[in-house]
Amino acid sequence: MKPVNCLALVLAAVLLAGCQKTETVAVVPPDPENSLPTHAQPKLPTMKIYLGAETLDAELALTAEQEQTGMMFRTNVTDESAMLFVLPQAMRAPGGFWMTNCPVSLSAAYLSPDGVIQEIHHLEKNDATPVQATTDNIRFVLETSEGWFARHNVNTGMVIRTEKGSLADTFLQR
Fold it and tell me: Quick one: which of 21, 96, 130, 135 has the fewest CB in 10 Å?
């Protein structure tokens, strides 16, 4: 075989290999109804938080998945139960907090970046309606058993602290 014919064969093979049809895959956005958690998450790591004279061992919801699952499916929420949500930035409690798949009602305090309670809300069991903050300066949300804040005389304007200091000092990089 002549070198010119050999070169022609190699070029033809390369061209054919480069012209293979690629398969197109459609990207379908996730269905929010099907992406909801289907069971309670295990107990999350906790941290002692201080609200005036009161102390709670609050579970820490630090990731988007932990935040989305929250207290869903939990039936044993007691006065000792609490979950602190650390939001990625100050906002209007991202879309509000809602109670889909939460079989017990809760109370929620919406906190500013410095840990001051701005608002306290009732979250009705199994209610999918988001409970919006009235301000866009919410960086933390503390969920407790229903009525906990009233029973323990914890009100708006109070500061929540940890053993490390303020919530900002504990969770926000400065």
Answer: 21
